[in-house]
Amino acid sequence: SNLILICDGHHKLLHEGIVTITGAAPDQLVFTRDGRQLVDPRSPAAIGQAMTLRETAAVTETVSPKPRSRFADAVRYEQAKQALKGLGFKATLAKQLLEEALTHVGQDAEVSTIVEKVLAMNRATTTADVIEDQSKGMLAKRALVQSGYAPALAEAAVEAALTRVGSDKPLETLIMEAFRRCCEG
């Protein structure tokens, strides 16, 4: 009853004292950071809140820059790593490519920028090396969802990207176009 399965990033944050976990496993756990409860980004409330924030940001002409923190850096890194693993990259290769990409784009880059840089640097790898019997659209949607976008938004962005670039383009092109669609609104 005292065990839970968490990713490497959250495990590290727990041991560094940045995040605390209290409650009874598996469904009564509370994750907190700086005294504030963290919410699962896939929960209906969080998805609705994210959509509202995106709509507000689209209306507002200026968006204040996000403050940098070790926690935010770790979350971005883990989301980018999970997106690459979702695309079929092995964990060790994803980590290696992320480290290299971060030296080019900086630690405070958005997840979509980091993944785009990894894909751009890895163009020599053929799509066949990355795809594991899944359609490009499914992989692109999975990459967006694992990067923090709501499944409905990811699906709409991939459909729009497929219409714009076509299904015959490389997976990297489809993902980059879908990321652009998500960032536009």
Question: What would you say this structure looks like, in words?
Answer:
- It is built from nine helices and three strands.
- The protein is mainly α.
- The protein has a three-stranded antiparallel β-sheet, with no helix packed on it.
- A hairpin with a 3-residue loop joins strand 1 and strand 2.
- Helix 7 crosses helix 8.
- 27% of the residues are buried.
Give a topology summary.
Elements: H1 8-15, E1 20-24, E2 28-33, E3 36-37, H2 44-59, H3 70-86, H4 91-105, H5 111-121, H6 127-130, H7 136-146, H8 151-165, H9 171-184
Antiparallel strand pairs: 1-2, 2-3
Proportion in helices = 55-70%
Task: Report the sheet with the most strands, covering strand number, pairing sense and barrel closure.
Answer: 3 strands, antiparallel
Q: Estimate the mean pLDDT confidence.
A: 77
SSE class: mainly alpha
- The spatial strand order of the largest sheet comes to 1-2-3
- What is the approximate shape? globular
N-to-C SSE string, H for helix and E for strand: HEEEHHHHHHHH
Give the low-confidence spans. 124-133
**What assembly state would you assign to the polypeptide chains in this entry?**
single chain
Instruction: Tell me the span between the first and last alpha carbons.
Output: 42 Å
Number of strands: 3
